[in-house]
Write a structure and sequence with these properties.
By secondary structure, this protein is α+β, with helices and mostly antiparallel strands. The chain has 13 helices and 20 strands.
Length: about 425
């Protein structure tokens, strides 16, 4: 049996970052990567400026830096934002590999092994972990970093109801032939959530994030396809050589999208047909905890701890979870290395727990109505005419503006001269 101080199940950002910090601090760490080689995590891949400033080495990963963003309201109002603090977009294969290799170089042992729901048990002061290949490992501490569908979280902290889960799905599609593409966030009409278009180095990630209890795949998939075709039409592309990954060629200057309504045209039909030959579909679940759950759900106990999505650490408004994955990993590693691993519970609550709870309280209002129209419509309408509100909105998108003082910041900005 292989013996370690800490065993980490899941080699995404949370698991790999924790493994690196623990190994650098002298702990013996086993890290299990159960994802098949080359299979990407279903994720938009956005990393906020808040995360980039906290951990500048993330910029060494191969990605694209974004300093401009187009936003659309449910009714189609358009807002172009120039961000004071850029964020980054990564392929999750590249980003996760970058973090996993840092953990390996720091001394963590990485195993390409999957752990099933029945593959771990606690005996006295030790955890025994059995992989699907039959190999056995033991450690005093077991870390669950295996995502929103975490088998460990269901067993140790209890399952979450469907109402506290969100769904993200989408497609990876080709870049226009010159490699340039706009970054877009568009709030959904008649649904909670938003669609995105995030350009990466070799493709565009399109997707929709919404609540699981209101999920209607057929209707939302049709909406996403209209969004995708409108994107290529409005951002100046036409279909070129059939079957080519560069078949979407830029032919005119950028112009705002005709959001949610792809034009019924020969050009639009050609783009749709070309996309269907080359897109790759993906889907994932994202935690979206209710306000009351933050008070009762624990992320650690005797000899065990949960990180990132497995702990429920994702923004209930946007679904963004990479910052919280990295920060929770950092907080646990620091608590463990100072000899007080159970202090992690108090540390995450004081550090970002209140912020995420506030976000869950605001989700219904954020996607609800305000003065007879969706709040997101009003927010973009006000931002179009007011520089201060536009600045706060840009900070919110970049991850620098939290929810606890958002209302105060917006009110203060609105009172300042234009």
């Amino acid at each position: 049996m292989h013996r370690f101080d800490v065993l980490i199940v899941g080699a995404g950002p949370a698991g790999s970052f924790a493994a690196e910090r623990l190994a650098r601090g002298g702990a013996s760490v086993g890290l299990f990567d159960g994802r098949p080689p080359g299979e990407p995590k279903a994720c938009g891949g956005g990393v906020t400026s808040k995360a980039l400033k906290a951990w500048p080495h993330l910029l060494d990963a191969v990605g694209r830096t974004i300093d401009e963003l187009d936003m659309y309201s449910p009714s189609g109002k358009h807002l172009h934002l120039k961000l004071d603090e850029p964020f980054a977009v990564y392929s999750r294969i590249a980003f996760d590999t970058f973090l996993r290799e840092r953990a390996r170089k720091a001394g963590a042992k990485v195993f390409s092994e999957k752990i099933s729901a029945r593959g771990f048990k606690q005996i006295d002061e030790s955890w025994i972990v059995t992989t699907q290949s039959g190999a056995e490992f033991s450690a005093s501490w077991l870390v669950g970093a295996d995502g929103a569908n975490s088998a460990m979280a269901k067993k140790l902290a209890g399952p979450l109801p469907p109402a506290e889960m969100e769904v993200a799905f989408g497609y990876r599609a080709p870049l226009p032939d010159d490699g340039n593409a706009a970054t877009v966030v568009a709030f959904l009409p008649s649904w909670v959530g938003y669609a995105w278009a995030f350009p990466r180095l070799d493709h565009v990630s399109f997707g929709i994030a919404t609540t699981q209890d209101a999920f209607d795949h057929e209707s939302l998939d049709k909406l996403l396809w209209d969004f995708m075709v409108s994107y290529y039409e409005s951002y100046g592309c036409r279909a070129g050589d059939p079957g080519s990954m560069r078949a979407l060629q830029r032919v005119r200057a950028l112009e705002p999208m005709q959001i949610w309504k792809a034009q019924q045209s020969t050009e639009g039909d050609q783009i749709r047909n070309e996309l269907k030959k080359s897109v790759e579909a993906y889907a994932a679940r994202i935690p979206g905890l209710a306000p009351r759950t933050w008070d009762t759900r624990r992320a650690c106990g005797k000899g065990w701890v949960l990180l990132g999505d497995a702990a429920g650490f994702a923004d209930p408004v946007t679904g963004e979870g990479i910052y919280y994955a990295l920060r929770s990993a950092e907080l646990f590693a620091d608590a463990y290395l100072t000899g007080k691993p159970l202090a992690y519970e108090q540390r995450w609550r004081e550090d970002f727990g209140r912020e995420l709870q506030r976000a869950s309280q605001m989700r219904r209002r954020f996607y609800g109505n305000f003065w007879g129209a969706p709040f997101t419509d009003r927010m973009i309408e006000f931002a179009r005419g007011h520089r201060g509100i536009r600045k706060v909105l840009g900070q919110l998108v970049a991850g620098d503006q939290g929810y606890t003082d958002l209302k105060r910041k917006l009110a203060r900005s609105a009172l300042k001269p234009l």
